[in-house]
Amino acid sequence: DRPSATPTEEMNGAGNLMDFLDEPIPDVGTYEDFHTIDWLREKSRDTDRHRKVKLQYVSVLLILKAIMRLYTFLCLYIFSNSGTLAGVIDLAVDWMTDLKEGVCLSAFWYSHEQCCWTSNETTFADRDKCPQWQKWAELMTGYNEGAGAYLLNYFLYVMWALFFSFLAVSLVRVFAPYACGSGIPEIKTILSGFIIRGYLGKWTLLIKTVTLVLAVSSGLSLGKEGPLVHVACCCGNLFCSLFSKYSKNEGKRREVLSAAAAAGVSVAFGAPIGGVLFSLEEVSYYFPLKTLWRSFFAALVAAFTLRSINPFGNNRLVLFYVEYHTPWYMAELVPFILLGVFGGLWGTLFIRGNIAWCRRRKTTQLGKYPVLEVIAVTGITAILAFPNPYTRRSTSELISELFNDCGALESSQLCDYINNPNMSRPEDDIPDRPAGPGVYMALWQLALALIFKIVITIFTFGMKIPSGLFIPSMAVGAIAGRIVGIAVEQMAYHHHDWIIFKNWCRPGADCVTPGLYAMVGAAACLGGVTRMTVSLVVIMFELTGGLEYIVPLMAAAVTSKWVADAFGKEGIYEAHIRLNGYPYLDQDEFTHRTLATDVMRPRRNEPPLSVLTQDSTTVEDVEMLIKETDYNGFPVVMSRESERLIGFVQRRDLILAIKTARQKQDGVVSNSVVYFTEDAPQIPASNPQPLKLRRILNLSPFTVTDHTPMETVVDIFRKLGLRQCLVTRSGRLLGIITKKDVLRHMAQMMNQDPESIMFN
């Protein structure tokens, strides 16, 4: 016979009582979609994991450390092979962009440049012309000249562009809606602790890679550099799932994603150092020192992989390698700063125009027809772009030509200068010369291209296809910079006796480099749109190899930021974060004199705070509270009378714990008492078996007093990555402040709509 229970056991009903949470439950401690993670909780969980490893494997601790390092390097190496994806994308874009104009007869998968490389009949003077490459009109009709051939090439160019864009938007809409856009606003939000399930998934990676090639090849005013950050983060997230250290801890996962973002910029521009600084300055929210070297390693491997593929065909890592043979002079800082002013004004115009258009897309019927919008914008872009040779070519080729210096062997229209027949100078030291008719024609075409790019980019960015902003912004600045550079060059040539030119520009000297002005203008416009400074300058000199020109780049970048900040502090990515209502706390100072009691809930005339008691709530009460509310968690108090705070429990953990208990623990019914104390409550033996849930209780929730200034509360939320904090007075619970409450209050203080913060 079973021995009789002791009186204490009969009173407590604890004869066979067990804490079923002694064994971890799957998914406890995880988060719902569109929710914010708790950084302190994730840090604590990682510390617990380290402690368990040390306790269980003391004898083999060194081996385990070596294995973890190997896993870390392996993980970083694998996802850093986003360099391979970037190389494939570059090669595919070159081929499909040229496919709109013609085809290589010897090998249809060759781009125009590759086709003529392999030809034995190509001369240096006509290196872009070879019999193996034929335009569509010549292939179909046998004629390459005349109005008929021009119109046929025009028609097929538009048709190919429409086909590529239609295929891209259709794939995004059907298979991966998250594959649209740049991805950087969402990456910033995810790295700040927000959960967007599926945004970094396998389907998103596959579809974004394919549609990025299609979108860029269609000729739309967009780039692939921003989306490559999203692609790299998808790779990082994919391989995080292979290791429990990262897959089960959202904080550790975000350290890897920060490194992945650095790898994305590294392969996008061939700028590994700039990629690390971009992740630190622009994207990452939490960037500890160990993440810095991981990012550096990731960027290194990604850049090495890209260099091995050699997608640019110049045996160089950088996208726009240039060699200038003339130093810059102090007097040139004036036009450089003016280009910075232009970049700031362009950034302001673009952000306001694009946000207004995107808001209209969200709030009107336009948003219901994404395919039609993409087709319409592509059609307008292709029809207007084809007649102008500077808008017909790919934007990367355009920027490369604008950056180049005019050497003796250049055949570009921009280099059509009138040469002095008596000139006897080395080929790399050509003096300033008067502009020929080709240069003036190019200036008119560039002016039209500038207006076209400014307008069409506003309507293109944000459509339901992958669309980056780096290259279009650089193109606008490069066009403006080249125009200014040629103007300064001609002024210096024709008016070298003016006081501003007298000291540094003598007749017959090579004084002004228009390509340098294009490079400075590109940096200024990109800085005006994104508000980047340090990482922008490093990316630009890595991108071009122009290490000597850091000071002009710095002057333009700082000026563009100052001018743009005068009209609004937000860059384009922050503006899109606010437009989409993501819960992102920016780094601007909160200067209003409000207190925690002004922001906490419940407010006056609101129902009291929903709480759980430590040992007098039943399972039925908990399930009813979960059913009737949508809160993400509940404070646990000693009793409803005292309101003394004990801890905080997450809603998702409660649901999973009760569900698992009903399945695995006998005797748990609706009348079972839920207790969060170490010892079971005193209940009669006839009552159902109680349920102990102490393990899921956070015994050290972050608290502030009701008189804590909101300036301090906002700073705490930023630096500690809090999901919520509880408001107390002398240990008694008064209310709760969530991240959403903080964002709403900040919006209200800035006279914005507090309901624009849509997500938890």
UniProtKB/TrEMBL annotation:
Compartments it resides in: Endosome membrane; Membrane
SMART domains the record matches: CBS
Transmembrane segments: 55-79, 154-179, 200-220, 256-280, 329-351, 371-390, 442-462, 469-488, 516-541
Pfam families associated with the record: CBS (PF00571), Voltage_CLC (PF00654)
UniProt keywords, alphabetically: Antiport, ATP-binding, CBS domain, Chloride, Endosome, Ion transport, Membrane, Nucleotide-binding, Repeat, Transmembrane, Transmembrane helix, Transport
GO molecular function: antiporter activity; ATP binding; voltage-gated chloride channel activity
Domain called CBS: residue spans: 600-664, 697-755
Topology in the lipid bilayer: Multi-pass membrane protein
Superkingdom in the source lineage: Eukaryota
SUPFAM superfamilies listed in its UniProt record: CBS-domain pair (SSF54631), Clc chloride channel (SSF81340)
GO cellular component terms listed in the entry, alphabetical order: early endosome; endosome membrane; Golgi apparatus; plasma membrane; synaptic vesicle
Gene3D superfamilies noted in UniProt: 3.90.1280.20, Clc chloride channel
Family to which the UniProt record says this protein belongs: Belongs to the chloride channel (TC 2.A.49) family.
Protein name, as recorded: Chloride channel protein
Gene name tied to this protein: clcn4
